[in-house]
Amino acid sequence: MPSHITDSIFLKDLYGTDEMRAIFNDESLLQRWLDVEAALAQAEAEIGVIPRWAAEEIARKAKAALIDTAWMKREIDHTLHPIVPLIRALKSICDGDAGEYIHWGATTQDIMDTALVLQIKDAIAIFEQRLSRLEATLAELAQRHRETIMPGRTHGQHALPITFGFKVAIWLDEFRRHAARMRECKPRVLVGQFGGAVGTLAGVGEHGFEIRRRMMAHLKLGVPTITWHVAHDRFAEFAGIIAMMAASCGKIAREVIALQKSEVMELEEPWAEGKVGSSTMPHKRNPMLCEAVVALARLCFDRARTALDGLIPEHERDWAVNHMEWAYLPELCVMADGALALTLRVLDGLHVYPERMRANLDAMQGLMMSEAVMFALGQAVGRQTAHDVVYACAMRAVETQRSFREVLAGDPLVRAHLSADDLDRLLDPTRYIGLAREMVDQVCRTDAD
């Protein structure tokens, strides 16, 4: 049975998706190794470094289904080397002497790095699909709740009114930047590797640059300007972008958790008959999807931190770095995709409770409107004086448990400059949401553009 949480029969769907797992499973990895070997052979045959018939036979037999994987596993255990057994396995099924030309001029890291880049390319395609769906979902949610007023909170306490659409539009804008980063990183990240033993292409001499160019053309990857065996910034950049995406998912999930607290209940993650919140408290409706997203985000942070460790290899080859990449990059992609997929699930079925939002606004008995009163009074007495007066009224309202309006109306300076109608207007939260609605429009309009 699987022993890793992302492959667990019981729990894997809380940690990733089958689509992303398929990119990084053993069959896919083996096929990508073979794809790289075939592309290398084809490139070399095109300029006469190896016979064309040999390259054609290598490409014809470079199919994962033709490889004896049980034999390969035993050989990897014996040799402690992943690619030498691959070469031997492929050679054994090639007709004639074609197998003698496999891996000509290459080193193991050329094959494994390039295969990993091909997997990342496939992963990016899935990430971009998820981001597109997420942007559309957030845009619709922001527009739908453009006018849904709710408490804005700073330092965990009620601050000023906002709209829920405003909050969502901030999420949307952030994910749009992630999508831009993903697009922008592709020319830097999706670059293949071919350098030979220490990166100088000595094994193929003057043909090296042309072989590399043709090899990457076959694989539809970028061509490096120089070998990057010990320059792992490409993977670190990609890992950072993915971790930031997961972090944004975690932020949304954390906000839903906070606003789903029993005493708040302004939002609630999707709930369906049969979902169980607790094994011992039957009444619980726990935010279990959101908690999983937060966990995945934090797990992604750890993998991104490992990517930074890979930026300090030694000399011209340091396989310790590669060993880390074989582990953290698949885990990071699977877990980040899990976070995106679960976040979409949360947002698609999110329960929004405008009545609770308004009730929570009113629970402060007008105190959330202190800034509006201060600025109105400041027109007559100055901003600093107005702050002192309104502060005193606010503290008195809290300590005496009276409404803010009642205390304001009883203050001589306030009464001298603000009428009862003024106070009614100033204490109406719907009149003090600034440009929240316009900002929603601006973000969503940019999205449409």
From TrEMBL:
<dbReference type="GO" id="GO:0004018">
    <property type="term" value="F:N6-(1,2-dicarboxyethyl)AMP AMP-lyase (fumarate-forming) activity"/>
</dbReference>
<dbReference type="InterPro" id="IPR020557">
    <property type="entry name" value="Fumarate_lyase_CS"/>
</dbReference>
<dbReference type="InterPro" id="IPR008948">
    <property type="entry name" value="L-Aspartase-like"/>
</dbReference>
<dbReference type="InterPro" id="IPR000362">
    <property type="entry name" value="Fumarate_lyase_fam"/>
</dbReference>
<protein>
    <submittedName>
        <fullName>Adenylosuccinate lyase</fullName>
    </submittedName>
</protein>
<dbReference type="InterPro" id="IPR004769">
    <property type="entry name" value="Pur_lyase"/>
</dbReference>
<dbReference type="Pfam" id="PF00206">
    <property type="entry name" value="Lyase_1"/>
</dbReference>
<keyword id="KW-0175">Coiled coil</keyword>
<dbReference type="InterPro" id="IPR019468">
    <property type="entry name" value="AdenyloSucc_lyase_C"/>
</dbReference>
<dbReference type="GO" id="GO:0005829">
    <property type="term" value="C:cytosol"/>
</dbReference>
<dbReference type="InterPro" id="IPR022761">
    <property type="entry name" value="Fumarate_lyase_N"/>
</dbReference>
<dbReference type="GO" id="GO:0070626">
    <property type="term" value="F:(S)-2-(5-amino-1-(5-phospho-D-ribosyl)imidazole-4-carboxamido) succinate lyase (fumarate-forming) activity"/>
</dbReference>
<dbReference type="Pfam" id="PF10397">
    <property type="entry name" value="ADSL_C"/>
</dbReference>
<feature type="coiled-coil region">
    <location>
        <begin position="117"/>
        <end position="144"/>
    </location>
</feature>
<keyword id="KW-0456">Lyase</keyword>
<dbReference type="GO" id="GO:0006189">
    <property type="term" value="P:'de novo' IMP biosynthetic process"/>
</dbReference>
<dbReference type="GO" id="GO:0044208">
    <property type="term" value="P:'de novo' AMP biosynthetic process"/>
</dbReference>
<feature type="domain" description="Adenylosuccinate lyase C-terminal">
    <location>
        <begin position="365"/>
        <end position="444"/>
    </location>
</feature>
